[in-house]
Amino acid sequence: VIAHFTPKVLAGKRILITAGPTFEAIDPVRGITNRSSGKMGYAIAQAAQEAGAQVTLISGPVALPTPRNVQRLDVQSAQQMLDAALTQSTTADIFIATAAVADWRPAQIAEHKIKKAEGESTPQLNFVENPDILASIARSTTAQSGRLYCVGFAAESDNLVEFASAKRKRKGIPLLVGNIGPNTFGQDDNILTIFDDSGHVELPRASKRELAKQLLQEIAKRLPKN
Ligand code: CTP
Ligand code: CA
């Protein structure tokens, strides 16, 4: 009720969000991907728009409608997501990386569909590491100059506090949002833990929509004043 009458917390801010999985092709009809419904990222995009921000959503393949008044750019691979994010980030105030980026991609993409053949061995895949989109943007001059506030996500299967605090420092970002997976995948609710320079605080179980609003409040109060 109170929030309804206060000024919009993100009025005039430009927010860039990555969401969903990436898809890394093996051949024209096959590929590898990560488990991610995109629901958390899409909920944040919608909540940010409602909080007055101008929102760009860079999305991997998901089965979700585009939130109202949000600019959506569809991509497939991590490399495409990185290219779009680097371009868009130069004019953004906040970058939120919710995407489940494939850590590796097949070293080669077969030009033609790989066929089964009697008596032949199964195909062997070799992988190369994908670029780290969040770390790349956190290292960019836009972020380093203090103009872009970067937020990461981490789904861990255990040891959340230890792994998430280490990940925040490794990526060089002021804020990282952790949750325990894989039980949250595709669900409509979640529990989030927010890690910053001074420790961590839990946002108790709620709908992804409610958590998105709370997270944006937490981000807004940490933005550099100008
Ligand atoms: N991320 C990214 N690009 C990648 C890998 C991760 O932008 N190539 C971002 C994710 O969107 C998320 C954060 O980094 O915001 C953490 O992702 P996560 O997979 O938990 O971290 P990794 O560094 O890949 O470590 P690992 O998977 O080994 O735990
Ligand atoms: Ca990863």
UniProtKB/TrEMBL annotation:
GO molecular function: FMN binding; metal ion binding; phosphopantothenate--cysteine ligase activity; phosphopantothenoylcysteine decarboxylase activity
Residues annotated to bind CTP: D103, K113, P131, D132, I133, L134, F153, K167, K171
Cofactor note: Binds 1 FMN per subunit.
Annotated stretches, region: Phosphopantothenate--cysteine ligase: 15-226
Catalysed transformations (reactions): (R)-4'-phosphopantothenate + L-cysteine + CTP = N-[(R)-4-phosphopantothenoyl]-L-cysteine + CMP + diphosphate + H(+); N-[(R)-4-phosphopantothenoyl]-L-cysteine + H(+) = (R)-4'-phosphopantetheine + CO2
Residue ranges of domain DNA/pantothenate metabolism flavoprotein C-terminal in the record: 10-221
Cofactor: Mg(2+); FMN
Protein name (database record): Coenzyme A biosynthesis bifunctional protein CoaBC
Source taxonomy: Bacteria, Pseudomonadati, Pseudomonadota, Betaproteobacteria, Burkholderiales
Chain's gene name: coaBC
Full protein stretch here: 208 to 433 of 433
